[in-house]
Amino acid sequence: MTYSELSKSLPVSENIPLLREPLFIAGKSIPNRLAIQPMEGADGTRGGAPDEPVVRRYDRFAGSGAGLIWFEATAVSHEGRANPRQLYLREKNADEFKRLVTRIRENAYAENKIEPVIIMQATHSGRYSKPAGAFERLIACNNPVYEGKNPLPAENIISDDLIRRIEEDYAVTTRLAIEAGFDGIDIKACHRYLNSELLSAFTRPGPYGGGLENRARFFRNCVSNARAESRGGFIVTARMNIYDGIPHPYGFGAAIDENASMGDGAAGSYTVPKPDLAEPIEIIRRMGFSMVNITMGNPYFNPEVNRPTEISGVERMYALTREIKKACNDVIVISSAPTFLREFSPNLAAGAVEQGYADIVGFGRMAFAYPDFARDSLAGRFDKKQACITCGKCSELMRGDRAGCAVRDPLYTGRYIDMKKQQGEPK
Hints:
There is one protein chain. Helix content is 36%, strand content 11%. It is α/β, with parallel strands linked by helices. The protein folds into 2 domains: 388 residues, TIM Barrel; 37 residues, no CATH class. The strands form 2 sheets. An 8-stranded parallel β-barrel has the order 3-4-5-6-7-8-9-10, surrounded by 4 helices. It has a two-stranded antiparallel ribbon with strand order 1-2. Helix 2 packs parallel to helix 3, helix 3 crosses helix 5 and helix 5 packs parallel to helix 8.
């Protein structure tokens, strides 16, 4: 992989200084064009507060030099937690979140003389909820691409009444996020969690399924409830799937193909659809977002879509993100998935901004492996020996009980090896 080869299919540029330009939103300055993406954690307290590993993680992120820190997935209710130690913001722990946000700001200024914008990702995990350690399977509707020949029973389909209650949970979480000092809230609508799955609930009857007006109802109500609580330039935004990578009528952002195979519930056994971004574009416009964070796919099922391990996946991510930016030019668009390019990822970030693919480029796995990536990128000294190698071990580690890099971070290297030994697998 060379710079010359990448330039044939991706927007790469050597204009790294462009990434140091600030952006302004809601009276706030985002000091540069690099962001740390939200990565789901499993190392808070059982009560949902930030624990020591979380504080350490954000100490590292605060010192990174990134102008935008998109704080990790934080549940809006107990039943919506993706694991028993996922963060969960509530009245009894709001002060602990506030201390962490204050600490992030102080460390960022001490290390880099910047004040990053901090967005909290608010989530309900839906199909992937595991508050007690086992899947509760609160699904929007049955999905044969995931379930194959063993569909989940009707009692797993979340009721309209519970959906309406969760809409109110987003209002409460927004109020608490403001009190904790966050600059904004992300109404998470990606990676097949509840909001994302409802956007593709073509086969669900009633007010939350069928046509786009109904399928977007939960998303729209959560955004409205968050805005009703907002004040003082607080940002209401979303990290949003624009393409699920599975066939219509079970995937969002997919073109209709009457001959598509739904497969047997195994990854790769279905027809990968062509994208159709008409609905994602319409939703972004309807919601009136001033900023949106773009992603795709399902990390539990087709992770190569949102965490590419081949150049073709990066090409798809940036081609589709560019379509969003062209259609929603007045919206600040954040792109994803530059990490596979390793030492060329800053060039992709610069090119994406320079050529109008996105306004900010977000890094996920790279921040685990190389927490100083932003500062070093902006100074033109990116160290490829510290770069993420896209091995996927961070995801395996998180499925255990920690969120970090099992290759570059000594704190987690031994833990990963011990975890594999306990599982009876080679390290």
